[in-house]
Structures are given as C-alpha cells and as structure tokens.
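Good morning,

Both structures are done.
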Amino acid sequence: MERRAFMAFFVGAAANSACPVYAQKGAHPVVGYLGFDSADKSTELLVAFREGLSKMGFIENENVAIEYRFADGKYDRFPELISSLVQGHVQVIIAATGTNGVLAATAATKTIPIVFAIAMDPVSLGVVSSLNRPGGNATGVSMYTPQLVAKRLELLTELTPEGGTIAILLNPTNPNADAISSDSEAAAKSLGRQFHILKASTDQQIVAAFDKIRAEKYVALLVSPDAFYIARREQLAALCEHNRIPAIYEWSLFVKNGGLMSYAPLITDVSRQLGVYTGKILKGVAPADLPVEQPTRFELVINLKTAKAIGLSIPASLLARADNVIE
C-alpha cells in the first residue's frame, strides 16, 4: 500500500520577463502551468513537476516563477487560460492537460515553447513532426498506445469470467474518441466479449449513462482516458459504488479517490518529465531538439475497500500482479 504525504506549496508573485534570455540581472524566468483539474486536486502532480524542475536546478520562488492556471475540468476554459499566459509573456507553457488543452495551446502560439502531456499520438494530430524530432515549438510526453485499452479490457474480463457485456464510457468531444472506439472494438473481439459504448460529455449525460448501465445490466465499466472524467473522479467512483459495478480507469488518481482499479503509466513520472523538459528549455535547449518521451513504467492499482463495498472478490492472481493495493 502506497502512503505518501505531499507538502503544500504556495504560489508566490511572479517576476515578468518577455525574453527567454534573461537580460535583467536577477530576473527570474516565468513559466506558465496549465492544469485540467482544480488546484487543490493537483497537488500530487505539482509536487512531481517541481521535482523535475529541481532536478534541472530550478526552484520555485528562488530562481524560477510559476504562473498557474486550472481549467477545473472544463474544456471550454482552455483558450481563455492559455491566452492569459501568452499575454503574460511566460517563457514556457506547460500543457498538463491532455489532448484538448494541448491542441488549444499549439493553436495559440507558434513561438512560445510548449511542454505537453497528451494521451493521443501527437504526430497524427499535427502537434509535432515526429516523436524523435518534434520540429516546432512543442514537445513533451505522449501516453498513447492502443495496448493500454486492450489491457484494461483484459483486466475487466478477468474480473468477470462469467461473461456479459462491458460498458465503455466515452467522451465524444475528445479528439481521441474514434481511436478509442476502434481500439476497444479490436480488443473486445480478441477477448471474445461484447461491449457497448456510452457517450457522455456533461454531468447529466454521465448520470444517464449509469441509468443505462443499470437498466441493461452491464457487468463492468471501462472509463476511457479523458481529462473531463479525471476532474470528476469522485463522482464516477461514487456512481460505480452505488450501482455496484466494477470499473477500471486510466490513472491511479481514480483509485485513490474510491475507484476500483486502474492501469496506466505512473502519472507522477509523466509530470516529473514535464518539469525536466521545462528546465532544459529554460537552459536554452530548443523544443524541436527534445524528442517526445513515452512512459516506460506502468502500474496496476487496486482498491480492496471499494471491492468490498460492491461485493466483489478480486482473484488472487490479479492481486499478485498489482503494483499497489489500497486497503
């Protein structure tokens, strides 16, 4: 069981500088951090980000200032928040937002360096020219791999060996929606399981989706990768518990907030790498010369308290493979 305490950090006043080469003696570079969630729910990610910056020699409020913007899980806020960072003349924009926020950031500026975390292939989206040589003003970490969807469905199949239809909650406004649908179809076919996609991009549609899950007696739920869902992780966990349905999610953040199970790269590794790349750019490395990273460590997290609440017995073989078990 993982037990880590995270210290709270205070955001200080930022010194403005419009140039990446700091002509004024003693001036701090200013970076803009854009998060998809609220500030109070982003502590774990911010700690890891600052660790990455520190590794490159940058300490907040000592020799670098950070301007924070948080979308509170609302996609439509990204353009406004990014515009405020651009107008504030930050030296680097950290788009720790997923696909929609990254696309909004790259649309807003072609000159300010952007360090992104994205769940889609950035090449197919036109964000970078290639993973090895991004070629423009953006680079970062891509978590996209079709095998992740297949692995999550495989884990749900192991949880429900008696069969039945698996529901997949999908945000149709996410640019990844078609790719997730096709990946899910291929994975379900290979596993010999039926699946049904439930589309939800609003709170009301999420509730309606669970009404459908209950009415159709679906046996399990896969919540597809989406920043909108991450920002509503407590709501989703509560609905799953109320409806006694086993669910698997993208990030361990869900499981730490009452979700049953997750399988994904270590989200803190991703956030830490964003800090490292931000530090390299502040030292003069061009984004075009920093290859897009892909995670190398993955974790399976299981919440036994949630399993007990929904009356589910986790197979011993699955528990043995878990990297973190919450009791």
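Second structure follows.
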Amino acid sequence: MITLGLYIGIVLAMPWVLYQIWQFVAPGLYKHERRGVAAFIIPSMFLFLCGIAFGYFVVLPTMLKFLIAFTLSGPVKPLISINEYFDLILIVLVGLGVIFELPVVIFILSLFGIVTPRWLLKNFRYAMLVITVLAAIATPTPDATTMLIFMAAMVLLYMVGVIVSYFVVRRKRARALASGEEH
C-alpha cells in the first residue's frame, strides 16, 4: 500500500513540480521559444493522458478478463498480491502513456528534417515490424487480443505521426519559399 501512496503522491505533485521547473526555465527563453515549448508540452501531456485512458478503459479490462478466464479453466488459483496488481497496472498505464507519445517524437524528427512523410510511408513495413515486436514485448499477457490492441493503437499513432510530419514539412517549405521571395 505504500507503493500506491507513492504513486498517487507523484501524480498529484507532478503538475506543481513541472510548474516550478517552468518558472525556473522560462525567464531564460525568448518569447517565441516559450510559445514553442508550450505548443510542445500541451499535446505531449494530452497524448500521455490519452494513453493512460486507453490503457485503463480498453487494455486493462481485456487483459484482466484473459487472466481471470485463464485461472478459472484449471486447478490453479491466482495468488497475486495487491502490490503486484498495482505494479502490473502501473506498467501497463505508464507504458501506454509513453507509447502514445509517438506522434510527438515524429513531430520532433520532422522538425529537424530527420524524417519526412514520404520516408515514413515508404518504410511502413519496417515500422510494422518494429511495432509488432514492441507490442509483443509491451503486452504483459500472452494473449493475441491484447497484443493486437496494442498494435492497432501504435499503427494509428504512427499514421497520426505521418499526418503531423506532412504538416511540419509543408510549413517548413512554405516558410522557405516566403523567406526566399523576400531576399
């Protein structure tokens, strides 16, 4: 139960800690840099919370249903402690929160010119391989349904990342054209 209290304390304190970090860093930034950081932080927090919600409302019920059905089919009785249960839930929820940051990672890579939407689509089959391996590793249960749910979410996030990359590249090209015409 101490672990649960620690997790709740971290969740409740995190907004205040992040605000204090922002108050320390913000005076050293230019106005356009502050706007850029705010435009980056808000979608990141939103996607992280969406990942947690997806895990809580979609993945956990499916996963727990499988585990309960698995234990009911034989003479084995589940002997899981409350700490192990909370650890499992924490791993699933935080893992999905991090996975849902994929569009933000693609945004950053596109911003620096490392990836383009064409490159992302051209290499989709390799991305599918990586997504499949990550889903197999991240899925805490051996059932295919949970793995497919993880994979579907990751493929959808990859496609959202491709769309985000398209808009980033398009905006960069428009700025380059505009600055080229001015000189």
